[in-house]
Each structure stands twice: as C-alpha cells, then as structure tokens.
Amino acid sequence: MPSPMLTSALLALGGLLSAAEVPPDILLMALEPPPATPDLYAAYAEAGLNTISVAAGPEFETAAALAAEAGLSVLVANPGAMEGGTAACAALAESCPAIAGCMLGANVTSADGDAAAQLEGLKHLDTHPLALAFISMSNGKGPATAERLLGTGLNAFGLRAFTLRRDGSEDRAGYFDHLARARELAGTHGTRWLGFVQVTETGDFRFASESDLRFQVYSQLAFGARGLAYHRYWLSIPPEAWQADPAAGMRRSMVNPITGERHYTWENVAAVNREVRALWPVLSTLRVNDVFFAGDVPPGMRPLPFGNHPIRAITGQSALVSFLRDADNRDWAFVVNTVHGMQRSAQGTERTLRIQLDPAIPPVMEVDRTDGSLKPVSVNRNEMYLTLPGGTGALLLLTPRGAGSGEAQARPESAQ
C-alpha cells in the first residue's frame, strides 16, 4: 500500500485536477521528462502536455505533488519499484486524482521481462489502472511483443520507431506500416494507442522540422491514435559539453537543460498541441473506418479508389485521407497534406489539394483547428480546394444531400 503521507499529500491537491479527466481522454506526454521543479513542470504543461511519467522511488511523492500543482496527470514509471509494488500503484490510481496509471516501460523489447512481470502483478488486482508501455520496433519483433503484452493485460501502448534519418531520408514504408499495425492492434484488443512522435535528434535520426512534426502528429491521429508521446523532452548534458556544441544540444532536447530556455522544437510542439486540443472534442467521438492515399502512395498502402467513398478523388502531390463515422452515422473525413521534409517549415511545404466529392455531398463543414468550431467550406460543382500547411490535416463533416446544411450548422457547439 502507498504510504499515508503520500496519499494525503496527493489528495490535498485533488481540487487542482477536479475539472480534468484522469486519465485524460487524450494523453499528451513527452518521454524523458524534465526534473521535478515547479518551473520545469510548468513549462512542460505550457507545451500543451497533460501527462507526465514520474519514477517510483524516494522522490516520487515530491515529484507527483509538483505535477499535480502544474495540472498534470501522473503515470508511475516502473511501479514494481514502489513500496508495496504494483498493488500500491493501483491503490494510488484509485485514491489520488493526480495518478492516471502506470508506465511499464518506454522501450520494451522482446527480451524485456519487467513489463510482463508488472502486468502479472496488476492483473490479479480488483482494479486495473491505465497500464502503458512503448514497444521497440527496432528488431522486427515489436508487433509480436505488443500482441503478447496486450493479451496479458496491457491496456495502452505505443510503437517506438524512429523513421526520420539524419541524411534527410525517411523510412516511409516502415512508418505507415507501423501505423497500420498499431491501428489493427488497438482495434483487436480494444486498447488505447498513443502515437510515437520523433522530435529531437538521436543516433542516426534527425530532429524533426516543423513540417516533420506536424506530419507525424496529423497522420497518426488520422490513423486513429488516441494520444501522443513526443521523444524527447529533456536530455541531461554537462555544461561544458553544451558550451562546446550548443547547436547540437538544441537538436537533442526540447529545452536547454542548463538554463531552461525553450527551443524551437518546444514551440512547434506547443503550437500543434493547441490544434490537437481544439480538434479532439470532435475527433474523440469518431471511429476510423478506412485509410487511403493520393498522389505519392507509400509502398504497401492503398490508393484512394475512385467513386467508392464520399470523397471520390484527391489530386495533389502527397496526401492521405481517413474516413470516419460518428454515433449519428454521419460521414467524416480527415485529409492530411503529407508533404514534409528535413529543415522544411509548414509554410514552405504548404499545398493545395483538389477534392472531388460524391454528388450527394454538397454541404461540407470543417472543424476549425484554432477553436474547434464548425465552419463551412466552399464547394462548387462537387469540387473543393483545401490549402494546408505541410504535414497538417483538415477534419471534415460530409453532410449527405437531404440532411440539409442547417443540421450541421445547428451543431457547432458539439465541436467546442
């Protein structure tokens, strides 16, 4: 069981999170979070992140209390190391509003037995809190490892894969194959899938440009991700190493670990998270039925078949479209401009897509990325044009003829 002091300290902060869902409906987090200080946790929250992992151990109480003060939900990292083990973690998740669940591993491989052992401890409990792990895709055994853990009680997962290479190339086929596998695993097991977003430089892989970042976020949401995990937020670097090569340091961490200065990657994550939060009240109610591509179709993915869906065709350099449906059986589409690249801005990769609609779909509404409201989109002779920044998506309500545009316009508050 957790210590009475820890439980009391976190319960005292419960009012700070009373308006928030725990766990949040969408988990927005960063791997390798900052040290536990009020200023660093406040900056983390200002980036639009709502969940943070805190290592079990002697400093957990202090860090978790600071997270709650910053309005963050907490995942107990390595819960088996907590006094009382996984049962203590589950008890905290039940009694303390700041605790969203457990983080069983950030880079789980097929040979890693820790996550499985902690799951074994959780599944014998009366309550089963959120249990999250990120599965390594580096050795080809990731899907099988994910399948095994999901079959034994894991209820939230991400597939950890780096695809943006330092030389400017990318594993485009592998990236979309990972998304398709994640969507399949989440659907089969009825679990939450968190998209893995490469942000900072590591090994042979580059830091994400603005268009790279947006491409990852919007493509994974279009495939059905129910959360996002950015890699990485913080990298401890000795002051002398930072001074020797400050430019390299800025590529490896979203903030300066010496001064706390926020880098452009932090700014880019904060900006896209504002859009995700605006879209999520609507997007969370939708179910992805199918995903297709137009223009440059990645190997192994399917081109949009003409005439089989509410959007009949998309003309553009490179785009994906997912078709979704809501509880009222209305059709939606998530159209993403997938043009992006190393050191390329969102504006520099902006493209206009020509979209041909089924003749039965004249009124179209778009969920505004700034405030979540519904706004009309101009359609002329069953065609519309969408101009989107690089890597960015548009969430569209496709109203069938006969439903009337008034019905869609009368429901914009549902998108707030």
General description of the model:
There is one protein chain. By secondary structure, the chain is of the alpha/beta class. The chain has 2 domains: 4-283, Glycosidases (TIM Barrel, Alpha-Beta Barrel); 287-415, Sandwich (Immunoglobulin-like). It contains 12 helices and 18 strands. The model is unreliable at 9-21 and 404-416 (pLDDT under 50).
Strand numbers in spatial order across the main sheet: 2-3-4-5-6-7
Number of strands: 18
Distance, first to last CA:
40 Å
Number of domains: 2
Shape: globular
The overall pLDDT, averaged over residues, is 87
Write the layout of secondary structure elements.
Layout: H1 4-11, E1 27-31, H2 38-46, E2 51-55, H3 60-69, E3 73-77, H4 85-95, E4 99-108, H5 114-123, E5 130-136, H6 142-150, E6 156-160, H7 172-189, E7 192-193, E8 195-198, H8 210-223, E9 227-231, H9 239-244, H10 246-252, H11 264-283, E10 287-295, E11 311-315, E12 318-325, E13 331-337, E14 351-357, E15 364-367, E16 374-377, E17 383-388, E18 393-398, H12 405-409
Helix pairs in contact: 4-5, 6-7, 8-11
Give a concise summary.
By secondary structure, the protein is α/β, with parallel strands linked by helices. It folds into 2 domains: 4-283, TIM Barrel (Alpha-Beta Barrel); 287-415, Immunoglobulin-like. The protein has 12 helices and 18 strands.
